[in-house]
Amino acid sequence: CVQLTHRKTEDFLVSSLSKHDNDRRHLGLAGSADLWVISDDPDHKGYYRIKDKQRGEELFESVQNYKGHYVFLWIPKTVINDGGASWKITGAANGDSIFKNKKFNDCLWSKGKDDWVGAYEGCDHSEYQWRITRVAC
């Protein structure tokens, strides 16, 4: 298991209690951490899947777009195998990580605790950087 900490705010990536609809759950940043499981993507070599440990819901970049794509957790019914739930994890200069989506080539982003978690093309500053901390499951 891991915790994902936003570089700019030092807040943790968390799943929300609120759902967007029957298939998707919102994400946010908070002061206390959720546990995440990062595993190799069996469909896309060199990419990873990121799941909320508690619910088993996968992080994915949606086609829904408003000045950037929405990122949700997929409430399991069917498997997302079109690259929307596939993430390449690369290192930033400071040792943090950047999560880049296979389908859209955007990076996981947030401006801060009161803003949303989405995905944009920039990938080039602290709003795109995340610290991965291994913890016991």
Percent in strands = over 45%
* Count of individual domains: 1
In CATH's first tier, which class applies?
A: Mainly Beta
The average pLDDT is 93
- Give the overall shape, derived from the CA principal axes: globular
Low-confidence spans: pLDDT under 50, at least 5 residues?
none
Organism: Culex tarsalis (Encephalitis mosquito)
Protein name: Putative 17.5 kDa salivary protein
Tell me about this structure.
This protein has strands at residues 2-6, 12-19, 24-30, 36-40, 48-52, 58-65, 69-74, 87-91, 97-101, 107-110, 117-120, 130-134. The chain has a single domain, classed as Trefoil (Acidic Fibroblast Growth Factor, subunit A), CATH 2.80.10. Strands 2, 3, 6, 7, 10 and 11 form a six-stranded antiparallel beta sheet that branches. Strands 1-12 form a two-stranded antiparallel sheet. The chain has a two-stranded antiparallel ribbon with strand order 4-5. The protein is built from no helices and twelve strands. 0% of the residues lie in helices and 49% in strands. By secondary structure, it is mainly beta. A hairpin with a 4-residue loop joins β2 and β3.
What attributes characterize this protein structure?
Ricin_B-like_lectins; Trefoil (Acidic Fibroblast Growth Factor, subunit A); mainly beta; 137 residues; 6-stranded antiparallel beta sheet; two-stranded antiparallel ribbon; 0% helix; Putative 17.5 kDa salivary protein
